[in-house]
Structure formats: structure tokens, C-alpha cells
Amino acid sequence: MLIQNHQIDLETPTGTMRSYVYHPKDSAETAGKKFPAIILYSEIFQQTSPIRRSAQIMAGHGFIVIVPEVFHELNPIGTVLGYDDAGRDKGNADKIAKYLEAHDSDTQTMINYLRTLDYCSGKIGAMGFCLGGGLAYRAAINPEISATSCFYATDIHSGLTPSKPGNESLARTAEIKGELQMIWGKQDPHIPAEGRALVYKNLVEKAVNFTWHEFNGVHAFMRDEGDRYDAELQLLGYQMAIGLFRRALY
Predict the structure, then answer these.
(1) How far apart are CA 250 and CA 247, in angstroms?
(2) 106, 155, 188, 230: the active-site residue
């Protein structure tokens, strides 16, 4: 499916958030059709080339995909951090400077915007990588999110992304009502086995509808730049996410 894209500056309670929207191209084939939407949360580096390609892949399979600048309050509009020490240091500093409550209002702002699109069906999912996996998990708490796919989601187990007391994502897991897909790399030092076990135990105890997938992969195996990239796992990951969203959102 051919796609097109545009960008939109959305006004959130914490400031202007540049967001990038990818969707099936207007054509005779798509005329009159409505498509479900996916909020795609990036790593700490914001919309890098690999994240843009991820959005394009998902849009090409029949979804509207919106990618927010997750740290819009802390950087000039259009900022993309490098996959280097300076970018990693800045992204990690931003991560602990922005509270989950601000991410919550960002999510609601995007949901409200997506529902204004005449080609959106109104069904919305969430997806993310690394920090974005944790933010997708957080988005799943929103009752308007019907399905969520989280890739090597950081900070759920540790609470490193801050929130007000008692408002941690683990503490609010019971509010997840849509289907959840959790995808991990066993060799990921950012989410060790004991961290994954904590998340799993919490999901079971809260009776969340979820599937759990662990692969022999390192952190960021989906990122098609750098020496962590695993093409076989990436293809499998996209197939799993697309399968979930086609079943749950269409």
C-alpha cells in the first residue's frame, strides 16, 4: 500500500508537540475507507531514521501512524538526537526530567487529534521501542487504546521514568483493558531477567489480556542502524505487531 505523510504541531498542556503522521495514500483504492491508528513512541532519540522507517512500514500495512516528539518540552521542535554518547546522555537526562503525567496528556492530545481525521476509523493502538515501549505500556492504561505492542520496554520494572507517588505504570496495570503484546530480548541488560519477571508477575496478578515473547536478542534489535540490528528478529517483530493490530483494530 502506498503511503503519504505530513507533520502537525499539537498543543498539549505542557507545550507544542511536533508529531509526524503517516497513512495510506489517497487513491481510488482507499477512497472512502477508514483506517485504524497507531501511536508509535520512539526511543529517547526521538524520530530518527529507523523510527521513521518503522512508521512507514506500519502505515504501509493499512494504519494511520503518528510519531510524537516525546521530549517536546525539553528540546527545540524538530530535534533528533544522535545514536552516540552525546545523544544518549541528553536522551537519558530528558527521560528523568519528564514525568509520566506529561506523557499521559501527550497521549490524550494525540487521541483527540486522530479522532478528527475523516479517514480514521476511531480504533487506536499504541506501539513503541525501548523508552517508547514503556510509554506504549503507559498509553495502554488509557481506555481509548485497544491494543498495544511493546518492544523491549524500559523502566516499567525500575520506575526510572518518574511519576507522582503511587502513579507508576506498574501500580496502574490493572487499568489496561485492551490486548497487550510484550516482546523482549533475553540478552538485554536494560531489562534483566528479574525485571522482566516482575512485569510478567504483575500482568498475571492484574489479569491483563497479554501475550509474552522472549527472543535471543540484545537491546534495540529492531533498530536497523548499528551493530545491534537483527534482521530476522526485526521481521518477526513486525509480523507479530501487524498481526495484533489487524486482529484487534480492524
Answers:
(1) 6
(2) 188
